[in-house]
């Protein structure tokens, strides 16, 4: 019993041998387009299975990083839990423990655990 991979490779090898010998398939005028159609279908599958979901995740992450606000409880990509104390252009200062403040790149924020509403932010 042939597996699907063996069937595809043997079919591709037979087509390559026919092409190399100069033989033309006269019974099917569209035989020369089967490889092209196969490549287009494979590219479409890769796009919808691999590329598009990754683009969606990246878009959601960029939105999450853009909407960070003072008072949000976040977790960094290293696993550090803290509350955002201040936000600069590309830096975030997290308050952890008893008044300890650590500065991270904005890209180091892995997730937001608890979002504060606009009225909840207060000055120290």
Task: Give me some keywords for this one.
124 residues, alpha+beta, SH3 type barrels, 2 helices, rod-shaped
Describe the overall structure.
The protein is an alpha+beta fold and 124 residues long. Among the domains are: 30-66; 69-114, SH3 type barrels. Helix content is 41%, strand content 23%. The protein has helices at residues 4-21, 34-66, and strands at residues 73-76, 81-87, 91-96, 100-105, 109-114. It has a five-stranded antiparallel beta sheet, with no helix packed on it. Strand 1 and strand 2 form a beta hairpin. It is rod-shaped. The chain starts with a helix and ends in a 10-residue tail after the last strand. The mean pLDDT is 83.
In short:
With 124 residues, the protein is an alpha+beta fold. Helices cover 41% and strands 23% of the residues. The radius of gyration is 28 Å and the shape is rod-shaped.
Supply the CATH architecture of the domain at 69-114. Roll
Distance from N terminus to C terminus (CA atoms, Å) equals 73 Å
Helical stretch tally:
2
Strand order of the largest sheet: 4-3-2-1-5
The pLDDT mean sits at: 83
Low-confidence stretches: none
Shape: rod-shaped
Strand content: 15-25%
CATH topology (fold) name of the domain at 69-114: SH3 type barrels
Main structural class: alpha+beta
Number of strands: 5
Largest sheet: 5 strands, antiparallel
Helix and strand sequence: HHEEEEE
Main CATH class of the domain at 69-114 = Mainly Beta
Radius of gyration: 28 Å
Share in helix: 40-55%
Main location: membrane
Family: Belongs to the YajC family.
Protein name: Preprotein translocase subunit YajC
Subcellular location: Cell membrane
């Amino acid at each position: 019993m042939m597996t699907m991979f063996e069937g595809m490779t043997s079919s591709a090898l037979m087509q390559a041998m026919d092409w190399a010998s100069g033989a033309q398939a006269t019974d099917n005028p569209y035989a020369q387009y089967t490889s092209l159609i196969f490549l287009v279908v494979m590219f479409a599958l890769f796009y919808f299975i691999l590329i598009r979901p990754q683009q969606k995740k990246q878009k959601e992450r960029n939105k999450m990083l853009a909407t960070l606000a003072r008072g949000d409880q976040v977790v960094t990509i290293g696993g550090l839990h803290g509350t955002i104390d201040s936000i600069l252009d590309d830096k975030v200062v997290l308050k952890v423990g008893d008044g300890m403040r650590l500065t991270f790149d904005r890209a180091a924020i892995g997730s937001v655990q608890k979002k504060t509403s606009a009225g909840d932010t207060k000055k120290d």
